[in-house]
Specification:
A hairpin with a 2-residue loop joins strand 3 and strand 4. By secondary structure, the protein is α+β, with helices and mostly antiparallel strands. The radius of gyration is 14 Å and the shape is globular. It contains three helices and eight strands; from the N terminus they run E-H-E-E-E-H-E-H-E-E-E. The chain is 25% helix and 45% strand. This is VOC family protein. It comes from Streptomyces rugosispiralis.
């Protein structure tokens, strides 16, 4: 699988305040979008997320978001090394996404830019 980049996930209580901090730290302007009830801002290599605790408790378990060329290829590679697909693949704002647990227990989101 080709890993194209990684975004760090940061769960915050106050998205507007966090955006100000991360825009200054990265020199990048935030791109905002909604993912269900969760407000998300992409700022540089960070995904800032804020929403109801029921959603945030799940999102805090995912270490990072990994951009890949093809989610289907990621599934094959992950299962070949003993990983487990927890959710997906599902449509995402820019392609498809899945959540996988690595054999060591770490949980990552994988995304591609291929439409479903």
């Amino acid at each position: 699988m080709d890993i194209l980049g990684t975004s760090l996930r940061v769960c915050v209580d106050d998205l507007d305040s966090a955006i100000t901090v991360y825009e200054k730290l990265t020199g990048s302007e935030a791109v905002r979008f909604q993912r269900g009830p969760v407000a998300v801002a992409a700022v540089g290599c960070f995904f800032l997320m804020s929403g109801p605790e029921s959603e945030m408790s799940i999102l805090r378990k995912i270490t990072a978001t990994i951009a890949v060329q093809d989610v289907d290829e990621a599934i094959a590679d992950l299962t070949a090394v003993g990983g487990q697909i927890v959710a997906g693949p599902l449509p995402a704002p820019v392609g498809r996404t899945l959540v996988a647990r690595h054999p060591d227990g770490s949980i990552f989101e994988y995304v591609d830019r291929n439409p479903a």
